[in-house]
């Protein structure tokens, strides 16, 4: 009970600080995933077109994924120094694999009969991509973005060790305090809520964009 009371007291006295770090934490996570999507989605389409490249590209991104987060931050810190930019770059690298793999899988799993029908109708390669393949693969790509964002929110927490700020700062303050359980929870709870909300929201978008959902809406209009 004392911990809950201390937690409520901490939030009441530091609400502005908590919201600032929450917002900073979310922005770092979102930027890392956003920049990764700008690279990974076109690259995923490319390796789906040229399957010989897929093994090399996916292996490289798999190797990046195996590097421990603290080690990644330490290496990048030597190049970029302390701060949020280093965390965003690390998140960019970690987010490449789920987005790339899901883009590749989504494009490859598009029904080849539909693609051939599009070609028979005279559609160009770009028209097939933008009007057929990407719309059908969009829910799978969104699933990759969902995984990357939830993962990024967790990794951003350790950005506090290189001066990036975020909710990890609050957790570290708690570990350094004599009786900091409430302070640790004050940072951990918003982090968990952020990850849960991101997962639920992206899951809803994923289901909305799925071909089966669209077909069902067309079959059963409101």
Q: What would your notes on this structure say?
A:
The structure is a single chain. This protein has one domain: MetI-like (MetI-like fold, Orthogonal Bundle). Helices cover 86% and strands 0% of the residues. It has nine helices and no strands. Helix 1 (2-49) packs parallel to helix 8 (181-209), helix 2 (51-66) packs antiparallel against helix 4 and helix 7 runs antiparallel to helix 8 (181-209). The longest helix is centred in the first third of the chain and has 48 residues, at 2-49. The radius of gyration is 21 Å and the shape is elongated. Belongs to the binding-protein-dependent transport system permease family. Residues 22-202 form the ABC transmembrane type-1 domain. Its main location: membrane.
Give the structure's gist in a few sentences.
It is a multi-pass membrane protein. The chain has 222 residues and is mainly alpha-helical.
Which descriptors would you attach to this protein?
ABC_transp_perm/SBD, MetI-like fold, ABC transporter permease, 0% strand, membrane, single chain, transmembrane helix, mainly alpha, 9 helices, 86% helix, 222 residues, transport
């Amino acid at each position: 009970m004392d911990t809950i009371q201390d937690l409520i007291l901490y939030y009441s006295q530091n609400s502005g600080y908590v919201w600032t770090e929450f917002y900073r934490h979310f922005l770092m996570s979102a930027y890392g995933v956003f920049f990764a999507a700008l690279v990974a989605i076109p690259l995923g389409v490319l390796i789906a077109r040229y399957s010989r490249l897929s093994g090399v590209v996916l292996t490289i991104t798999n190797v990046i994924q195996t590097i421990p987060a603290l080690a990644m931050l330490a290496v990048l810190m030597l190049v970029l120094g302390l701060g949020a930019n280093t965390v965003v770059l690390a998140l960019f690298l970690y987010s490449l694999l789920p987005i790339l793999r899901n883009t590749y899988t989504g494009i490859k799993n598009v029904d080849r009969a539909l693609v051939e029908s599009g070609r028979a109708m005279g559609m160009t390669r770009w028209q097939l991509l933008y009007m057929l393949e990407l719309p059908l693969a969009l829910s799978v790509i969104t699933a990759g973005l969902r995984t990357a964002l939830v993962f990024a929110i967790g990794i951003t927490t350790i950005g506090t060790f290189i001066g990036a700020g975020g909710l990890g700062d609050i957790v570290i303050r708690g570990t350094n305090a004599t009786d900091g359980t409430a302070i640790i929870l004050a940072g951990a709870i918003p982090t968990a809520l952020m990850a849960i909300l991101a997962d639920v929201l992206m899951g809803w978008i994923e289901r909305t964009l799925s071909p089966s959902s669209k077909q069902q809406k067309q079959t059963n209009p409101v």
